[in-house]
Amino acid sequence: MKHHSVAAAALTLLFATATAAAGPGSLSAYSASGKSGQALPVIKETLVAPPDVPAAIHRDYPARVVVQLETKEVVKKIASGLNYDFWTFNGTVPGPLIRVREGDTVELHLRNDPSSHMTHNIDLHAVMGPGGGAAATMTPPGQESVFAFKAMRAGIYVYHCATPPVPMHIANGMYGMILVEPPQGLPPVAHEYYVMQGDFYTTTGYKYTGYTTGAHPTPLLAFDLQKMLKEQPTYVLFNGQEGSLIGDHALHAKVGDTVRLFVGDGGPNLTSSFHIIGQIFDDVQVEGGTLVNHNVQTTLIPPGGAVTVELKTLVPGTFLLVDHAITRAFMKGALGQLVVSGEPQPELYHKVSSGPAPADKAGAF
Ligand SMILES: [Cu+2]
Cα(163) to centroid of ligand 1, in Å? Predict the structure, then answer.
């Protein structure tokens, strides 16, 4: 009994000391430790903009990974000649992909840019704790919140803002993904890319112009609440912009490469029927879990869900990433390109002949 009391007193003292030592936004007093009780090595995560991803992890030990995200409200291009007032993590849609290893402790710093109009926070689906971190990170403009969690399950997970009205924060672009690598890491591949689909609700129709002001000479599209309530988006986009993965921004590979795509759906409402025209997915990590499906043509990705897709590029050409609810691809913007370079592979694919050109057909009917 005496021992018990002493232990309780010691715990109380430890907690009091920790509380006193930890200033606002500081977690130093709660420094995570491994099973041995030793402090974990601290690693500052280097984040990169989509469609790129941080380098693969080669550690065989857990670390305390410090991740710094900043919520920013930015006016930028949504489609050719049209801007939108996006709400973002780190200025991009989606926010940067966070990459950690199962068993790591993630110390997540969420700063809200002083010029923001809204409070923001973050709910990471890789977190097993209240709100996925949302309650711990409700952050007014100009402030910073910090919380820590142990990444206990390998997989690819969505994160998003969960500040009311939640659907509006997500519809304005506040989502991204966190990859929790298994302890043994992922097999090396030639290319890894990061793509997220989202549905956008604007007051004008697809490619109709918005309004201009002195501050915004490029037409600005406004958010349309009624369209969101009806789940009828104006735009369905990969990486928050029509053309974000087209032309100069296309994804690239060579013949014979294995390409790994981390594909998520921020929503807020539409499920993606993700497909690449002219490819078959060799492996799909279904719903980001441990089930791996093979030889898949189209995979479903629900809002708030993600998959890892791997494919081998066997033939050169331009292959279109689409939501195969195909109106969204060709009339709402959900279109990207994977450009595969290399020698033709006629034993795998070649054109034999074409019908006459349309002009030659004139008068034939
Ligand atoms: Cu928000």
Answer: 5
More confident residue, 359 or 77: 77
* CA 91 – ligand 1 centroid, Å: 12
Q: How far apart are CA 103 and CA 42, in angstroms?
A: 13
Query: Would the pLDDT of 186 be above 90?
Result: yes
Q: What is the pLDDT of residue 360?
A: 58
Cα 174 to ligand 1 centroid, rounded to whole Å = 6
Q: How far is the CA of 312 from the centre of ligand 1 (A)?
A: 37
Q: Is residue 306 a contact partner of residue 265, using CB atoms and an 8 Å limit?
A: yes
Per DSSP, helices labelled H in the chain are 2-21, 166-171, 225-230, 327-331, 358-361
- For residue 327, what is the DSSP state? H
Work out the pLDDT band at 37, boundaries 50, 70, 90: low
Confidence of residue 317 (pLDDT cuts 50, 70, 90): very high
Mean pLDDT (whole number) for 56-74: 97
Q: How many CB atoms lie within 10 A of CB 347?
A: 6
Query: What is the CA(107)–ligand 1 centre distance, in A?
Result: 20
Instruction: Specify burial of residue 202 (Cβ count, 10 A radius: 0-12, 13-18, 19+).
Output: buried
- Residues lying with their CB under 5 A of ligand 1, a single-atom ion: 120, 161, 163, 169, 174
**pTM to 2 decimals?**
0.88
- The torsion angle over the Cα atoms of residues 293, 299, 302 and 305, rounded to 10 degrees, is 50
